[in-house]
Design goal:
The protein is mainly beta. It has five helices and 15 strands.
């Protein structure tokens, strides 16, 4: 699926998505901001320091698509399904996630979260996360917090050599705890400022982002910029476009209150790279010299 997933094709998909979002007929939600089913899609492009040496191509590009479908059943049950298709640090990544919760109060939603991410390299590494989720939505601010257990597939890769040693990278050698936390402030209904924290595979990362939304026909279209700033490989920066179909072009604050959940799969891409631990393995000494030339292919050294 991703063997021919090039930057030009991604640009075409983003353009088509934007065009659909600007069309009054391309709506999957009800005509008001309180629709029971809502669809949005995000396109992003940027750079990352997550340079894990697994695949055959090494670069700092990070770009892809993030579609999400949020839904409600009655007044209390809230859910969302997320997908990701991306090129990240030279590797193709695909991922999916699900959120399901209930309204504990007028401002608070409690639920569960599960995700799975695959890096399509020769190693085909997977990461899985399961946790609990809390969302608080106030008049001017919102809090999104997920915490739980993560598991990364184990793999060992020879990364190179230095005099006397082989460099070995080990991935996913143990399960662990992960945390995703964001605080979003709305200075105006169509502006959002976000700060947050990430922790996964023993690495910490900070989050900063800004989003500006515009009404266009029956949809809400927004531009955003965001970054990750953290330990080792846990850094990156992106700009992009989010199209929220339907909702009668409601404000950013209104549509995010109805969506409730955040698509966090960009952060899940880092889970595998963050699990990398490098060790130096000493090379064996060379065989002793055979002055009599009666040792063939090191046979006498082996004995």
């Amino acid at each position: 699926m991703f063997q021919n997933f090039s930057g030009s094709k991604l640009t075409f998909v983003l353009a088509a998505t934007a065009a659909a979002g600007l069309s009054p007929h391309a709506t999957v939600a009800q005509s008001t901001a309180d629709g029971s089913v809502r669809f949005r899609i995000e396109g992003f492009a940027g750079s990352t320091t997550d340079t894990r040496p697994i695949g055959t191509q090494k670069d700092k590009d990070s770009k892809g698509l993030l579609p999400s479908l949020s839904f409600s059943y009655g007044e209390s049950l809230k859910g969302q399904l997320d997908l990701l298709a991306a090129e990240h640090a030279g590797d193709d990544s695909v991922a999916g996630a699900a959120h399901l919760g209930f309204k504990a109060s007028a401002h608070t939603t409690l639920g569960v979260y599960a995700s799975k991410t695959r890096i399509k390299t020769p190693a085909k590494l997977n990461s899985e996360r399961v946790g609990v989720e809390l969302v608080y939505q106030g008049d001017k601010a919102a809090i999104n917090w997920i915490a739980g257990h993560e598991k990364v597939d184990a793999a060992t890769v020879v990364a190179g050599t230095i005099p006397g040693y082989t460099l070995v990278d080990t991935y996913g050698d143990k399960d662990g705890f992960f945390n995703l936390a964001d605080v979003t402030y709305y200075p105006r209904p169509n502006w959002a400022l976000t700060l947050g924290h990430r922790y996964g595979s023993g690495r910490h990362g900070g989050v900063a982002g800004v989003e500006r939304a515009y009404k266009w026909n029956s949809s809400t279209v927004s531009l955003f910029a965001e970054g990750r700033f953290g330990d080792k490989a846990y850094s990156g920066a992106w700009v992009g476009l989010r199209v929220r179909f339907g909702g009668n072009g409601a404000s950013l604050k209104a549509v995010r209150d109805q969506e409730i959940y955040t698509n966090h799969l960009k952060d899940d891409m880092y889970g595998i790279g963050n699990s990398r631990r490098r060790t130096d393995v000493a090379l064996p000494p060379p065989p002793p010299e055979d002055d009599d030339n009666d040792c063939v292919c090191g046979a006498c050294y082996a004995t």
